[in-house]
Design a protein that fits this description.
The complex is a heterodimer of chains A (259) and B (206).
Chain A lengths: L8 H16 L4 H16 L13 E2 L5 E4 L2 E11 L11 E12 L5 E2 H7 L14 H11 L18 H5 L7 E4 L8 E2 L4 E11 L6 E14 L6 E20 L11
Chain B lengths: L9 H20 L2 H6 L2 E6 L3 E3 L3 E15 L4 E17 L4 E3 L1 E5 L5 E2 L1 E2 L8 E3 L4 E10 L8 E5 L4 H4 L6 E6 L4 H9 L3 E3 L4 E2 L10
Parallel strand pairs in B: 1-12, 3-13
Antiparallel strand pairs in B: 2-3, 3-4, 4-10, 5-9, 6-7, 6-11, 8-10, 10-14, 11-12
Classes of the chains: A alpha+beta (259), B alpha+beta (206).
Chain lengths: 259, 206
């Protein structure tokens, strides 16, 4: 005696089996395995299988020591001011200084540019961007009269892409020794310096804190691309946090006075 | 005259095998890289003139300072500045002297600063002594037993510029007791620009 079959899931199963049979019957074992892998990948896609894994950054807190590459760092304070040592802001800007205590804990000297690569310019706080080569080329073209025949109101230069305009490259910090306002180039092992990482910031920024990111540094024994030996390579953001910004723009003094 | 096939003898086989074994043993036991790549280090003391083949080197004076002054700049040490006065007398031709570093007893190395008129390198024509002042910012525990290494080749990338070449290593003569005194003292050194060495600065040659 035949029993009535339940509908619903059973029908779906039978249809699925027929589809699989129709597709897989003529396949070799390897082809079946490959098709199975592809099907599995498609199945996990809606669950974020391709989403970039974001590393969790630890907090940056003023006064707390953190370890990055060969450096022990302590963010001391952030200050905005007018003239800072030999650095003078352009009209409409002021200087933004992030004061940091830094000790090179390795056995060999490090260039201060390595420290600069670990602490990029704060984003979203109107740090004056680095004049890009595209802009320079556009300026040069304008100076040479190559845009003379352009329509009034047309874009100054087609080479300046919208992306470049939207996300201008921020400059590396100028690094100055707070004790004497001289430029620090070498950080010798075991010596603690208080340095100021300095950028120009637009006067339009009126916030009372800045976001600070500290990028991790990975040691590269030998680069596969350039074959350069032994250097620190900036990696992902390892620490981030908001640091209160002290306003000293009514004062003009050397960095050591920006207390 | 001998004709026909040559015979493989035990003696001949033994000679070939022995040669191969001896060659392998030679390659395996002799540290060839160290032999051909290690710089030829010439050691000395302050005031002693070292013959580096391409130049005569004399470290004439060693001082310690918290502050360096030049006509345009004043520099404060993070640790303390070890100020090394030296003269180079090139003996073969115009020579650039790029290597300058201090090493401490723990194996740490320290590079010179270019602050306040100090030199990080030098270039001299042959036939006369050229005076240079190197300044190194070092921590307290690096002073005792420190040595300075000066050479025409640079020290970057594991002394790549000094391979198969001479380098002078001079003991700065700082004892543990000296180190404590030097660290506590608050000295200011006014640096001199590089230039022709005076008779005083030429060291033991005079």
């Amino acid at each position: 005696m035949k029993h009535a079959r339940n509908g619903g899931p059973d029908i779906a199963f039978r249809v699925g089996r027929r589809v699989v049979s129709a597709v897989a019957d003529d396949m070799s074992t390897m082809q079946r395995v490959g098709a199975g892998v592809v099907a599995a990948l498609v199945a996990v896609t809606p669950f974020g299988a391709w989403s970039k894994v974001e590393a969790q950054a630890d907090p940056v807190v003023a006064g707390a020591a953190i370890e990055v590459g060969p450096f022990d760092l302590t963010v001391v304070r952030a200050v905005k001011t007018g003239d800072l040592g030999y650095l003078t802001p352009a009209p409409g800007n002021h200087m933004l200084a992030l004061v940091v205590d830094v000790t090179n804990t390795s056995d060999v000297p490090e260039y201060s540019s390595t420290l600069g690569s670990a602490i990029p310019a704060p984003k979203g706080v109107d740090v004056v961007p680095q004049e890009s080569l595209t802009d320079l080329a556009a300026d040069l073209g304008t100076d040479l009269g190559t845009d003379a025949g352009a329509e009034p109101g047309a874009e100054p230069s087609a080479s300046a892409s919208p992306e470049a305009r939207e996300a201008p490259e921020l400059p590396p910090a100028t690094i100055v020794n707070v004790a004497d306002a001289t430029t620090v180039r070498i950080l010798n092992p075991g010596v603690t310096y208080q340095v100021a990482l300095i950028w120009q910031q637009s006067d339009e920024f009126t916030g009372d804190e800045i976001p600070v990111e500290v990028v991790g540094l990975d040691w590269i024994d030998e680069s596969r691309l350039t074959l350069d030996n032994g250097y620190w390579l900036p990696a992902d953001v390892a620490f981030q946090g908001d640091i209160p910004l002290k306003d000293n723009t009514d004062r003009t003094a050397a960095p050591e006075d920006q207390q | 005259m001998r004709h026909g096939r040559r015979l493989i003898t035990w003696k001949g086989s033994l000679l070939v095998v022995g040669g191969v074994v001896a060659g392998c043993a030679l390659v395996a036991t002799v540290p060839q890289e160290a032999v051909v790549e290690t710089p030829f280090v010439v050691e000395g003391a302050v005031g002693e003139t070292l013959d580096l083949t391409y130049a005569d080197l004399t470290v004439t004076e060693v001082r310690v300072a918290d502050t360096l002054e030049s006509f345009s700049e004043t520099a404060q040490a993070g640790g303390t500045f070890v100020v090394v006065d030296a003269t180079w007398r090139a003996t073969q031709g115009a020579t650039s002297f790029l290597g300058a570093e201090i090493a401490d007893t723990e194996g740490r190395v320290f590079w010179p600063t270019d602050q306040a008129g100090c030199s990080t390198s030098a270039k001299a024509q042959p036939g006369y002594a050229w005076h240079v002042t190197y300044c190194f910012d070092v921590p307290k525990d690096a002073l005792a037993g420190a040595t300075v290494r000066l050479a025409r080749g640079g020290q970057a990338e594991e002394y790549a510029g000094q391979r198969r070449d001479a380098a002078g290593v001079v003991d700065l003569g700082i004892s543990a007791a000296d180190a404590r005194e030097l660290w506590d003292a608050t000295e200011t050194v006014t640096t001199e620009s590089p230039g022709y060495a005076t008779a005083r600065a030429e060291g033991s040659e005079e």
